[in-house]
Specification:
The chain has three helices and 16 strands. By secondary structure, the protein is mainly beta. About 45% of the residues are buried.
């Protein structure tokens, strides 16, 4: 057992050092009960609002959202107010109609779907800049979505590949928390489907690293910080 754990530690350290940014928030959504969504890296635990269901996800379990006003709220924190950031989330839609928010922080950067395509959003202090993807969303299919925010704009990735990009002004943060599946700021763009494996990185991951995350998702135990090996090993055993 000791040999196995040491091996996991070595792999985790090696892969982490290969990334250009640090993982500062990771919500695996691998629980099967409770009203708290745990962040296994940064301790930014979320609260489930409304009636949701723990179901089978893309990796382990996931959280299914089926009705308006069902979402996850993570308290606002300066840790997540970054001028360069990467947001990653897995999603599976029960319906592709209308606009559905997947994940967003402070209503200032986020990923959503609208009319069958993915879109990325950035608030610049005056209005929202969006970039529209080209991937056609299929109901009942899992997608890895990723948003990178840099000083020169935003990029949207789907399943490890660049889907769209837009030059934008710098990001400006509003006084809202982190939401998964929608939020009361808009009170209308609720997600109908299942979310899984949400991550936030403290810099802009390059395309090769986004693709690496798609091919080697965190539940395989290879992108946790070394001091999270217990959690990582638990994911491997599943």
């Amino acid at each position: 057992v000791i040999i196995i754990l040491v091996s996991v530690c070595v792999v985790s350290l090696t892969i982490n050092n290969a990334f250009s940014a640090n993982l500062i928030g990771h919500w695996p959504l691998d629980q099967n009960s409770g009203e708290e969504v745990k962040d296994v890296v940064g301790g930014h635990h979320g609260k489930i609002i409304g009636k949701t269901k723990w179901v089978r996800g893309q990796f382990g379990n996931g959280l299914q959202l089926t009705a308006p006003n069902n979402y996850v709220e993570v308290q606002k924190t300066k840790d997540l107010e970054l001028s360069t950031v990467t947001l990653v989330a897995w999603v599976n839609f029960d319906s592709v109609a209308g606009r559905q928010e997947i994940a967003s922080y402070a209503d200032s950067y986020g990923i959503f779907a609208e009319n069958g395509i993915f879109r990325a959003l950035l608030y610049n202090g005056n209005n929202w800049n969006t970039t529209n993807g080209i991937t056609k969303i299929e109901q009942g299919k899992w997608y890895q979505t990723a948003l990178t925010v840099a000083k020169n704009g935003i990029k949207l990735y789907v399943n490890g590949k660049l889907d769209a990009e837009t030059v934008t002004p710098a990001i400006a943060f509003q006084n809202f928390p982190l939401w998964f599946g929608g939020g009361p700021a808009d009170n209308q763009f609720w997600l109908t489907g299942t979310i899984d494996e949400i991550e936030i990185w403290n810099d802009t991951l390059p395309p090769a690293e986004i693709e690496k995350l798609y091919k080697n998702p965190p539940s395989l135990g290879i992108v946790y910080p070394v001091d999270k090996i217990t959690t990582s090993w638990g994911a491997i055993k599943r």
